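Box 3.1 A note on notation
Throughout this textbook, protein chains are presented in two layers. The first layer is the amino acid sequence; the second is a token string describing backbone geometry. Keep the layers aligned when reading.
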Amino acid sequence: MKIRQECSLARLHTNPKHVILANSPELKFINALCSGLVDEAVGYFREKKLFGDVPPVVDVPYGRFEGLSEIRKFAEGWLDTFHAQSATVQPVVQTRANGRSVSEVVINFVVDGEINQVPMFVVGDLRTPDTLDEVRMYCHFTYVPGLTAYRKPMFTPAHLEMGDPGLLTGSVREYYEALHHVPGVDVDRIMKAMSKDCIFGGYEPIKDVVLEKPSYEEIRVKYEHMRTYIPSCVGMRFETIIDDGVTCVIEWVHIVSEKGQRELGRVAMSGIAAYERGDDGLLCAIRICDYANYERTIDWTKTPVSKEEAMQTNLVKEFPAGVGRKPQS
């Protein structure tokens, strides 16, 4: 079957070293969705989460579905949302730790006899080894027909401060300390945390898909650009850390400064990234999924909250000068 829309996730990151548990519930859930098995998909949840007397949740780029009846509606509309007649799932990477399991997959949606490939993170909060309390999915908005560039934060931060790199280890900690270095990203330090053959990308927007591995210098250019707005305009606060010792997956929400809002139109959103360590301890792969630099394209008639509410979410006057740390001794 002809591929009409290709992505680079599987091409860049398929690796025989990646161990994937086929019976992990978040992977079985996404397979059930793509097979049209609505009852099976809903069956991975219970009436309430294990704790808290609250309903189970599925949160996806185009909406939040709480409770079994809403999850059923989501499952019934899954293929239609992507204008697809059928779909199959290709697992690429899986990270299981800290009571969560993350499957990074390519979904092959069959649309009018051709394949549209969509790379997705599927994050499952495990209730038991076989059931789920919550699922969160991430993909770039350009892969979802009719979606605009806004992802309402899924987490409410306990306080409006950037994530503490001390919660991370090794090259991932070094990377984040350099990323949030004041007054700007310490690009040299970030590059030293990566191996020379580090692979960057996999979740990029449709128009920017490049199937070849970017060079070390091309990766550097990306971080030189980030230096222009991190951390003065926007920061990341960790909300989950799923680290199996090889790959560290971080879900975050943005914190935006008044400068970032004024000069770049930045608004707080949810995002996710995976950082994979090689045998030498350095980063051998970085996969980021967010809507950075698309904020000015948002159609506020299509968002779940008003522009005014979104602009006030996680807004701070400025970031403190103490952000960013010295290398570990």
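The two ends are 55 Å apart (CA to CA). The chain has a mean pLDDT of 94.
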